[in-house]
Amino acid sequence: MKALVTGAKGQLGTALQATAPEGWQVVGVDLAEMDLADPQAIRDVVTREAPDVLFSAGAYTAVDKAESEPDIAQAVNGDAVGHMAQALAAITGGRLVQVSTDFIFDGTRSTPYPVDAEPNPLSVYGATKLSGEAQAGDGAIICRTSWVYAAGGANFVRTMLRLMAERDALSVVSDQIGAPTLATGLAQTLWSLSAVGKPGTFHYQDAGVASWYDFAVAIQEEALALGMLERAIPITPIRTADYPTPATRPAYSVLDTRDTRALTGLPAIHWRTNLRTMLKEEQQLG
């Protein structure tokens, strides 16, 4: 069996390659091998590799920058998914596994979002990812997730570690609630969903909930315990209104993951446990 992974050098793409089940041949491609904004490049790579499963992990993820680059965000997050689905259908009949986001929701709920909740994206990024869901096709597996991070990647955890080492104090938004997600667990879930083979939409996050402020406090506490930081600094909770950004983010984006966990049989691991795991991996990277 053969899998093609887009965004192979990113956090999730790297994790998908690292967690591949025995017996799978995995081919990873990134921008240099397959420009997601180029329909012909997509068709050429799918034709050449003829995968049984295509993990669509590559994306335009610069949420704020997307507000000023809607066309390229749509090409990569939306239209590219349609081109991949069409190429698979025409060439191999393989399965598309599309990774989507909690940002397709508007954050007005106060209980976890089920998969059939009405989407209402607040940003260009969210709208383009929703377009990708629509273009994935009825036979696709769509998995929404949030706040993805991994050792060695470009993410909130590593940014916080750097700022905590450089600054004397930090202010972090406390009124956006969601759940951090370690890329390794997400990758394992995507492989499991692929093995089950049931098309449809699924949700996956690490267990538990947090604000960005909660996440930052935990990062500092865990990093101090591991000796990754020399001192603690004050972290002040602030409102979203105090930290304006070009893109509007949902205030609440906790996803209901119960059906996904029941289907895959994978354990629910709390985000703080996975944070500790990631920090130890980061420490080993030096």
Salient structural properties:
single chain; 286 residues; alpha/beta; Rossmann fold; two-stranded parallel sheet; globular; EC 1.1.1.133; dTDP_dehydrorham_reduct; dTDP-4-dehydrorhamnose reductase; NADP; NAD(P)-bd_dom_sf
Characterize the structure shown.
Residues 1-282 form the RmlD-like substrate binding domain. Belongs to the dTDP-4-dehydrorhamnose reductase family. It is an enzyme of class 1 (oxidoreductase). InterPro entries: dTDP_dehydrorham_reduct (IPR005913), NAD(P)-bd_dom_sf (IPR036291), RmlD-like-bd (IPR029903). Keywords: NADP, Oxidoreductase. The protein starts with a strand and ends with a helix. It contains nine helices and twelve strands. The strands form four sheets. It has a six-stranded parallel beta sheet, with helices on both faces. A two-stranded parallel sheet has the order 6-9. The chain has a two-stranded parallel ribbon with strand order 7-12. The model has no long low-confidence stretch (mean pLDDT 96). The chain has a domain at 2-155 and 180-207 and 254-268: 3-Layer(aba) Sandwich (Rossmann fold). Helices cover 40% and strands 16% of the residues. The longest helix is centred in the first third of the chain and has 22 residues, at 70-91. Helix 2 runs parallel beside helix 3 (70-91) and helix 3 runs parallel beside helix 4. The chain has 286 residues and is an alpha/beta fold. Strand 4, helix 4 (124-135) and strand 5 (141-145) form a beta-alpha-beta unit.
Describe the protein's topology.
Blueprint: E1 2-6, H1 11-18, E2 25-29, H2 39-49, E3 53-56, H3 70-91, E4 95-101, H4 124-135, E5 141-145, E6 148-149, H5 156-166, E7 170-173, E8 177-178, E9 181-182, H6 183-196, E10 200-203, E11 210-211, H7 212-225, E12 235-238, H8 258-264, H9 271-285
Parallel strand pairs: 1-2, 1-3, 3-4, 4-5, 5-10, 6-9, 7-12
Antiparallel strand pairs: 8-11
Helix pairs in contact: 1-6, 2-3, 3-4, 5-7, 6-8, 7-9
